[in-house]
Design a protein that fits this description.
The structure holds 2 protein chains of 2 kinds. By secondary structure, chain A is mostly helical. Chain A is built from 12 helices and 1 strand; from the N terminus they run H-H-H-E-H-H-H-H-H-H-H-H-H. The chains are: A mainly alpha, B alpha+beta.
Chain lengths: 300, 121
C-alpha cells in the first residue's frame, strides 16, 4: 500500500477549493465575454459620434455581460454540482475596501468633471444614477480583480458618456483590459476543464472509488512512522498556484509603466494602474495565500 | 536477567505501548469513520456544497451519503439547507463551527499520532 490516503485527502480538498472558486470568484468564459463586451465598447467609441448612443448602449452591454457571466457560472461551471468558496474574513474586508475605492474613484472623477465644466443639475443627474449603482454592482457582481476592473471601466465610460465627454482617449486602456480579460478567461476555462478531468480521473482510481478502502488505509497506518502527511500538509509548495497571480502583477506593472511613461495620461489614467496593481495583488492573495490558509484548517 | 527485572521491563514496554496507542482511542469516532471523514474533508474545503457535489467527491451511494450526513447533522457538525434550484429541490451542506473545531482537533490528534517514533527518527 504505497499510495497513502492522506495525500488523497489533501488532493480532494485542493480539487474542492479549486472547483468552488468558479462558483463565486473565477469567471472563466465570463471574463472572455467581458473582454468581448469591452471590445464592442471600443468599437462603439471609435465608430459612433453620438455620446448619447454610447451612454445608452454601454450600460446595456454591461448588463448583458453581468447577466451572461452569472448564467455561465451557473450552468457551465457546475457539472459536478454546486460548491461555494470559503472566503476568509480578510478577503471579505479586502472586497469591501475595493468597493469603497471604486466608489471614491468614480465619485472623484464625477465631481472633478462637474466642477470643471460647471454643469447644471439637469446635466449631471445621470452621474448620480451610476454612482448610486456602483457600490451594489461592485459588491454583488464584480468579485474578482479583472471583473472589477472591467465593471468599473464600463461604469466610468457610461458615466462620462452620459455628460458628453470625449471617450477616444480611453481606447488604449479599454483594449488592454479587453485582451487581459480574454486571456485570463481562456486560461481559467482551460484550467476548469482540466480540473473536472482530474476529479473524474480520481474517481476512477481506487482512492476515490472506494472511500472505505482509502480511508481504511488511513486508519491502518495510524502507527506507521513513514507517512508524510504532516510534512505535506504544512509545507506543500504554492509556487505553481501563485504563478498566475505573479504574472498578473507583472502585467499590472507593465500596464502602469506604459500608462504613466508612454501615454503620460492624467488623473483618470494613472488611477487605473493603481487599481490594477491592487487587484493583481488580490488575485495573488487568492491564488497563493488562501490555499495555504485553507491547508492550515481555514481557522479565522 | 532476573525475573523481576524482566517483568519490570515488560511492564514498562506495555506502558509505552499504552501511552502511544491511547490517543488513537481518543479519536472522534464520528469523524474517524471513513465515509464521514470523506464528507467532512470535502466540506472543510468549501463554504457550502450540494448533494450532487458530495456524491461526486466521496463516491458514496446516495443512501449511504444521506445516512452519514444525517449523523453528522445530528451531532451538530454540519448544517443542512433545503432549497429549490428553479423547481428542483436541492440540499446544501456546510460545516458548522463545531464541526470545524472537531475536525481541526481530529487532525491535530492524527498528526500527533503520525509523528515518527523517537527511535526511528
Amino acid at each position: 500500500m504505497e499510495k497513502s490516503a492522506l495525500p488523497a485527502i489533501e488532493e480532494v480538498q485542493r480539487l474542492t477549493r479549486d472547483y468552488a472558486s468558479y462558483a463565486h470568484r473565477r469567471g472563466g468564459l465570463g471574463n472572455v465575454l467581458g473582454g468581448l463586451v469591452m471590445l464592442a465598447v471600443v468599437l462603439l467609441i471609435l465608430l459612433s459620434k453620438a455620446d448619447l448612443l454610447i451612454a445608452l448602449i454601454t450600460p446595456g452591454l454591461m448588463l448583458s455581460w453581468l447577466v451572461g457571466k452569472e448564467l455561465l457560472r451557473s450552468y457551465l461551471y457546475t457539472p459536478l454540482g454546486r460548491a461555494t468558496e470559503r472566503r476568509s474574513v480578510a478577503m471579505q474586508w479586502f472586497h469591501l475596501l475595493r468597493v469603497c475605492l471604486g466608489v471614491l474613484l468614480l465619485g472623484g472623477i464625477a465631481v472633478s468633471v462637474v466642477i470643471q465644466r460647471s454643469l447644471a443639475f439637469h446635466q449631471w443627474w445621470p452621474l448620480l444614477v451610476f454612482l448610486l449603482l456602483t457600490p451594489w454592482i461592485a459588491w454583488r457582481y464584480l468579485r474578482s480583480g479583472i471583473e472589477y476592473l472591467l465593471g468599473l471601466f464600463l461604469l466610468l465610460v457610461s458615466l462620462l458618456a452620459s455628460i458628453g465627454s470625449d471617450m477616444r482617449s480611453y481606447v488604449v486602456v479599454a483594449l488592454l483590459l479587453a485582451f487581459l480579460s480574454i486571456l485570463l478567461g481562456l486560461y481559467e476555462h482551460l484550467r476548469f476543464r482540466s480540473l473536472v478531468k482530474e476529479v473524474l480521473t480520481l474517481q476512477q482510481e481506487a482512492l476515490l472509488q472506494s472511500p472505505w478502502r482509502a480511508f481504511g488505509d488511513l486508519t491502518r497506518r495510524v502507527f506507521s512512522v513513514q507517512l508524510s502527511w504532516p510534512h505535506r500538509w504544512t509545507f506543500q509548495p504554492v509556487s505553481r498556484e501563485a504563478l498566475p497571480g505573479v504574472l498578473l502583477i507583472g502585467v499590472g506593472m507593465l500596464f502602469s509603466l506604459t500608462d504613466v511613461l508612454v501615454l503620460q495620461q492624467t488623473l483618470v489614467f494613472w488611477q487605473f494602474p493603481v487599481i490594477v496593481l491592487l487587484l493583481s495583488f488580490d488575485e495573488a492573495l487568492h491564488m497563493s495565500v488562501v490555499p495555504a490558509w485553507a491547508r492550515q484548517g481555514g481557522r479565522r | 536477567m532476573k525475573l523481576s527485572e524482566r517483568s519490570t521491563q515488560s511492564l514498562e514496554a506495555t506502558e509505552d505501548v499504552h501511552h502511544e496507542t491511547q490517543p488513537a482511542f481518543e479519536l472522534d469516532r464520528l469523524i474517524h469513520e471513513p465515509a464521514r471523514l470523506a464528507i467532512v474533508v470535502v466540506l472543510e474545503a468549501a463554504e457550502e456544497v450540494d448533494f450532487k457535489f458530495l456524491l461526486h467527491m466521496t463516491n458514496l451511494t446516495k443512501g449511504n451519503l444521506s445516512r452519514q450526513t444525517e449523523k453528522l447533522a445530528e451531532a451538530g457538525y454540519i448544517e443542512v439547507r433545503k432549497y429549490y434550484k428553479g423547481r428542483v429541490p436541492a440540499t446544501g451542506y456546510r460545516l458548522t463551527e463545531t464541526g470545524q473545531a472537531a475536525f481541526a482537533h481530529y487532525r491535530d490528534q492524527m498528526m500527533r499520532l503520525l509523528q515518527p517514533h523517537p527511535q526511528e527518527k
